[in-house]
Amino acid sequence: MSSRTLPLLFINLGGEMLYILDQRLRAQNIPADKAKKVMNDIITTMFNKKFLEELFKPQELYSKKALRTVFDRLAHASIMRLNQASMDKLYDLMTMAFKYQVLLCPRPKDILLISFNHMDAIKDFVKDTPSILSQVDETYQQLIEMYTTLCSGEFQLIRQTLLIFFQDMHIRVSALCCLLLCFPLCQVSIFLKDKVQNSNGRFVLPTSGPVPYGTQVPGLIRMFSCTGEEVTRLQFNNGGNYTAALREGSFEIFRDRVTKLGTNMYSVSRPVETHMSGTSKNSAQHTKVNTAPNPLAKEELNLLAKLMGGLEVPKSGNADNGFRVNLFNTDEEEEEALISRPGDLSYGVINIQATKDQQVNAELAKIMGEFTESGEQSPSSSSKGDDLLAMMDGL
Amino acid sequence: MYHKEKSIQVKNSASALYNNLGVLRIAPRHLTYFTVVHANVVNMVSASWDGLNYSHRQLQSKEPNVATSTSLIMQAAFCPLPSRDLLVVTSQKGIQMYESDGSIMVYWHALDTPETPTAQAVFARGISAVRESYICVGVSSGAILVFDVPIKGSNITLSEVLKEHKESITDIAPECSGQPGMECIADLVSADDGGNLYVDCIILWKGTVVAGYGTGQIHLYEAVTGILHAEINAHARWIYSLDIAPFSGLLLSAAEDSLVRVWHLTMTPETNSVEVAHLHNECVTDTQICGAKFCDGDGYAFAVTGYDLSEIIRYTQS
C-alpha cells in the first residue's frame, strides 16, 4: 500500500520503546549516568544518518519478523541487556501502544502529530547532548519535508497500511494511566475507573468527546433549493455524546500538538502488565502476509546492516559496565513469562551478533547466499550483496 | 426498526479498507455470497437463506512470476451484469476477475508497477459494473479502466482508459435506479483523492450523487448540474461505506465512529428536490466499521464488517 509508512512506524515504535526503557531504568534505580548513557546510545543509533537514509526511501513495510529484529538490535545498542522474555514484553507494549494511537487518531493527518509528540519527547531526552540533538533536529526536518505536504487521502492510506500491519494483535496491556492523558477536558476521577481495553484485548472506542478538527458534530440535516437557499433543517439523534472539535495541533517544530496521543504515558512509575490469554485463537487464524521463504528480504537486510554499521562494538572490558534490565517485577516473573508464552506469539527473531569480526560477514553472506539458491534472481541482487559485504568490511 | 441476527463467522478478520464487504444475492438458489478482504486474501462465504448451510472459500491476490503473492488487496466487489455476475478483486499488482462463486479466475490484468517502489503508491481501487457489459476499475494514477465483458467465457478485453482524474480514484458507482428501461443521463460517477474534502464513498441513484466524506459528512448533489441538494453531518469520523437499496430509497452509511445509520431518500421530480430523513442507528461497540451493505434491493436486511473483527454482523427489519 503506502510506500511512505516505514519511517512513521519506526519513529513511533522507537519513541514508545524509549518511554518504557526510561521508566524501567528509573524503577530499577539504575545510576543516572548509566541510564543516560543507555538512552543516548539508543537514540544516536536510531537517528544514524545512513540508517535514516535507508528508512526514508519509498518502500513497502517490513515483515513483523524483520522489524522485531531491528528493534532487538536497537535495544542492545548500549550497555543494557534484556532477556528474551523482557524483550518480548517490551515489544508487545510498544506495538500495542502505537496500535492504540493509530486507532484512536481522530484524523489520519494526526498520525504526524503523534509522531511529533514522540520526537518532542526524544529531543527532551537528549537536550544535554548537542551532537545527538542535532541528529534529532535533522530528522524533524526530514519528517516535515516528507509529510506536511501530503493530502488527507495519502495519510489515510498510511493509516490503513499501519492497521493492516497491526491486524489481529490483541495483547492486553493494563496501563490505566494512559487514559488520563488522552482526554484532557474530563474529570480525572471518573476516567480512572474506566478501562482502555476490554478483557478480550480490544480497545475501547468511545462514541463521545470532541470530534476531529474539520468535522462537525453529527446530528444535522440541511436541505437546499435549486438556488442554494437552505429550505429545511432537521435534527437527528446521533447515538453518542459528542462535543465540538478542539483547535488544530501544530505541525511545526516547536508548537502545541493538542493531542495527547504519543506523549509519555509511563511518566508516572506504574507497573505495566501484559496478558497473553485469549490471543492465541486469533493468531491461529492469522494469515501471514509476508510468506517469503527467506527470513529477511534484501531491503530489510540492508537496513539491518546500516543499523549495525552505526553500532559501537562493546569492548570486552566493559563487562562490568553492562547491566540487565527487567520488564517484570522479579526475575522469577520474567522466567515464568518466557515459559508460558504461547508458541504462536513468539517473534522468531533472527540472531545476528554485532561484532566486528569475520563471523558477521560469514553469517550475512550465508543469508545472502540463501537468496540466490532459492532462485530469486534480480539484476541487482549480486551488486546489493557486494555492497552489504563491503559495508561490513568497512566497520 | 432493525434487530441483530446471528453473525456469520469468517476465517480472518477484516482489513481497514473502504467498502470492505461484497454482497451478492442469488435468488434462484436461495443463497447470498459475502466477501471480506484480509490483507492479501479474500474470504468468501456462501450463506443459505435458511441459515443452515455456510461454505467458505479463500481467494489469493495474484502477481506475475510469484507462486504466493503477498501483494495487498484493496477491494473485492461483485459486478452484476444482465448476462452474468463477476467478482472483481483489485490489488497493488493488478485486477483479477472471477466467476461470482470464486471458483474460476476468468481474467487478469497487470498494472504497470515500477521496478523500485516510488513515493506514489500503485494500486487499483473502485469497482463498478456499467450498463450491459462493462466493468470499470479505478487506478491510483487517476485513470479508469473500462473492460468489455462478453456474455460468457474469458474473452474480457480492456476497451478504453478514461483519464479525467489526476488523483487516485477512491470509488466508482453506476447509476443504480433499478428500473429497467429508465433513461440514464449519467452512467457512472467517480471520486478521487484530491481536494480538501476527501470523498471515499459514492453512489449514483436516480440522477442524484450521494457522496461520503472523510469529515463524516454526506452530501447529495444533482448529478448533471452539480447542485447541492442536501448536506448531512452524518458521522464523527471517516465514512467507510455507503450503500443504497434502489427499490425503497433506503441509504446505509457506516464509519470509523462505530456507527451504522439508515436514512431514507425521497425524490420529487416535479420540484426537482431530494429529501433525506434519518431512520435508524446501530452501534457496533468498539469497532471501526469498514463495510456495510444491504442484502437485498428493498433494504430489508443489511450486513456489516469491522476492522479486526472475524465476523459479518447481520441486521434484519423487525
TrEMBL record, chain A:
Residues 276-292 have a biased composition (Polar residues). Pfam families: Oscp1. Residues 274-293 are annotated as: Disordered. GO terms for cellular component: cytoplasm; plasma membrane. InterPro entries: OSCP1. This is Organic solute carrier partner 1. The gene is oscp1b.
Automatic annotation (TrEMBL), chain B:
It comes from the Eukaryota. The keyword Coiled coil does not apply. Residues 1-199, 201-316 form the WD repeat-containing protein 54 beta-propeller domain. Signal peptide: none annotated. Keywords: WD repeat. WD repeats lie at residues 232-273. SMART domains: WD40. This is WD repeat domain 54. It comes from Sander lucioperca. The gene is wdr54.
